[in-house]
Specification:
- By secondary structure, this protein is mainly beta.
- The chain has five helices and 31 strands.
- A six-stranded mixed sheet has the order 11-10-13-18-15-16, with no helix packed on it. It has a five-stranded mixed sheet with strand order 12-20-19-14-17, with no helix packed on it. The protein has a five-stranded mixed sheet with strand order 23-22-25-29-27, with helices on one face.
- The protein is globular, with a radius of gyration of 23 Å.
- The N terminus and C terminus are likely disordered.
- The protein binds CU-O-CU linkage and copper (II) ion.
- The site of CU-O-CU linkage has 10 residues, from strand 6 and strand 30.
Length: 505
């Protein structure tokens, strides 16, 4: 507590706290002038986020509540590393693809064309879309063949930070650049949180000529560990620059779109105010030193620049323990340059602590399922599964619309797994966490957790899997059929070609 208060935010705050509380951490620097302006009275510095700008799709629909656009998956040469062209796999020619930005209630219509040499689909990660729009090949739609088109249409029902990506051969397709951000705004959110900035974090595996590494690089070890690309990108760029003004808040919407890399984000001299993550605001804000995001997860956090005017700093990736050998011999990496402009500091806006009422899901009478995330290694092969069964041999879980279940997710394997569920938000049953709605949660190696989920709407077949996409590809995935007792039966057949990746069986 004491330490936290003594964190060197601003010289003027520090000096007063030191006077009142007897701060033992460090002597305050000579008091500077008290800021004259409040954060709300100034704008972000000119061109603050130009280097991080994400393309917006061209809206074909004049209705302000409908976002309708063309989206084409195609290979495009891009200069991701200086002086070299990479034949990236893109949406509309950019990495990341266009930012889908709307407000709760907006309708989204996507005219999608697959101009890749392979089949694909799009999954709208985290959005509560109708089952037929979920992009799970064989379960909710047929694979979209090379040259073919598909119309996706859905309503943005929940504020939050989401993303979209392919659901076929996903480790390879995502790893080559197919992903984009989705930001669903709630117009009632306090302005004090600051200006929104989407930070889509990804990595890509390239050789020195900028060519893509083969899909099966690393072989079985690549499957086991998960393929991390050595080139780290923020909104598609290597170490881009963000301009900030001391005391002027920004609201970062961070997305981990890598196929296997965990992020532990740190910024010297700073803490973050975490507001929530996957599916909008948490019940309360929390003051955190670092932001940790496994693949697929998002964070929503207020960043209050606290460096002196005219200085620069670096947002860093710090190795995170995620199982066997994951931090061995690894050092921190630079992600994003933060330049504090030479302008007078402003007084940050006070932030609310209570953010949202999150009613706990009622689990009296809930059925409990055990979902063990398993890894099997033989002398010639590595495969993974749910309860020991790889996806291609699995039987569907079955449930009825309106039911509530508790899933006990067990991980006795040597790696951590980010568990993701399609179709429904869940709540993690853990009193030490701030309540929030989630769709992806890390299950650390040698641990278990419980989550509550209610099948409130939208019957159909929904996937669940590890979001280390290499793990999903080699079998760590299952499917759940939620039946509507009042509707004709849906087929219980196992979807055929999901994640039909490089692995042959
Ligand atoms: Cu983002 Cu089935 O995944
Ligand atoms: Cu996994």
């Amino acid at each position: 507590m004491r330490l936290r208060k003594c964190w060197p935010w601003y010289p003027w705050i520090l000096s007063s706290i030191a006077l009142i509380g007897g701060c033992e951490r460090q002597a305050p620097p000579a008091a500077e002038s008290v800021p004259q302006q409040a954060a709300r009275d100034v704008s972000q510095p000119d061109g603050w986020a130009d280097d991080l700008a994400l393309p917006l799709p061209e809206d074909l629909n004049p209705d302000p509540n409908i976002l309708e656009f063309n989206l084409e998956a195609r290979i495009q040469n891009l200069e991701l590393i200086a002086g070299h062209q990479t034949p990236a796999w893109t949406y509309n020619g950019t990495v990341p693809g266009p930012l889908i930005r709307g407000k709760v209630g907006d309708r989204v219509i996507v005219h999608f064309k697959n101009s890749l040499p392979e089949e694909t689909t799009i999954h709208w990660h985290g959005l509560r879309v109708p089952n037929t729009m979920d992009g799970a090949p064989g379960a909710t739609q047929d694979p979209i063949q090379s040259g073919a088109e598909f119309r996706y249409e859905y309503t943005l029902t929940d504020a939050g930070t989401y993303w979209y990506h392919p659901h076929i051969d996903s480790s390879t397709q995502v790893g080559r650049g197919l992903y984009g951000a989705i930001l669903v705004e709630d117009p009632n959110d306090p302005k004090a949180f600051g200006d929104d900035l989407v930070l889509l974090l990804s990595d890509i595996g390239l050789n020195e000529q900028g060519e893509l590494l083969p899909a099966d690089s690393g072989g079985d070890f690549g499957d086991l560990f998960g393929r991390e690309g050595a080139v780290l990108l923020v909104n598609g760029k290597v170490q881009p620059t963000l301009k900030v003004r001391t005391g002027k808040q920004q609201r970062w919407r961070i997305i981990n779109a890598t196929r296997a890399r965990y992020y532990n984000l740190r910024l010297r001299n700073h803490r973050f105010m975490r507001l929530g993550g996957d599916n909008g605001l948490a019940a309360r804000s929390s003051d955190v030193y670092n932001l940790i995001l496994p693949p697929g997860e998002r964070a929503d956090a207020v960043f209050t620049p606290a460096d002196p005017p005219g200085s620069s700093n670096m947002l860093r990736w710090v190795p995170t323990e995620r199982g066997y050998g994951s931090t061995f011999n690894r050092s921190t990496e630079d992600l994003l340059k933060i330049e504090t402009v030479d302008a007078a500091p402003v007084t940050p806006e006070p932030l609310p602590t209570e953010l949202r009422t999150i009613e706990p899901i009622d689990i009296t009478n809930a059925k409990e399922r055990t979902v063990e995330l398993t890894i099997s290694i033989s002398s010639s092969d590595v495969w993974m599964g749910i309860n020991g069964v790889p996806f291609w041999d699995s039987q569907a879980f079955e449930a009825t619309l309106g039911e509530t279940e508790v899933w006990r997710i067990v991980n006795n394997s040597d790696f951590s797994h980010p568990f993701h569920m399609h179709g429904y938000f869940f709540q993690v049953l853990d009193d030490s966490r701030v309540p929030e709605w989630k769709d992806t949660v890390n299950v650390p190696t040698k641990s278990e957790l419980k989550l509550a989920v209610r099948y409130d709407d939208r019957p159909g077949t929904w996937m669940f899997h590890c979001h280390i996409l290499d793990h999903a590809e080699v079998g760590m995935m299952g499917h759940l059929i939620v039946r509507d007792p009042n509707a004709p039966a849906v087929s219980a057949a196992r979807p055929g070609s999901i994640h039909g990746g490089h692995k042959r069986h």
